Amino acid sequence: MANPDLLESPETDLAEALDLPWLVVVHNDPVNLMSYVSMVFRRIFGWTRERAEQHMMEVHVKGRSVVWSGGREQAELYVQQLHTYLLLATLEKSS
Prior knowledge:
With 95 residues, the protein is of the alpha+beta class. It has a single domain, classed as CATH 3.30.1390.10. 56% of the residues lie in helices and 19% in strands. A three-stranded antiparallel beta sheet has the order 2-1-3. α3 packs across α4 (49-62). The longest helix has 14 residues, at 49-62. The radius of gyration is 17 Å and the shape is elongated. The chain starts with a helix and ends with a strand.
């Protein structure tokens, strides 16, 4: 029989938290032009103009857009890159 304490260890919780899909979310702001936001998406993610504009419009209309989902380390890198371009971006756990 497995030891329940081992199944619920902090190391297990940490590993699970790191492996969960993480979301990179870009939020609307009153400062950046829509064309600038599209350009940043194209530069960081290598998207086509159409895809970048679709996400930019989602940010503009809905106030936010999930622009990437995956491992935490890569998500943190994308958030940092978006901040470098002065976009408002956050990291969220996928539910």
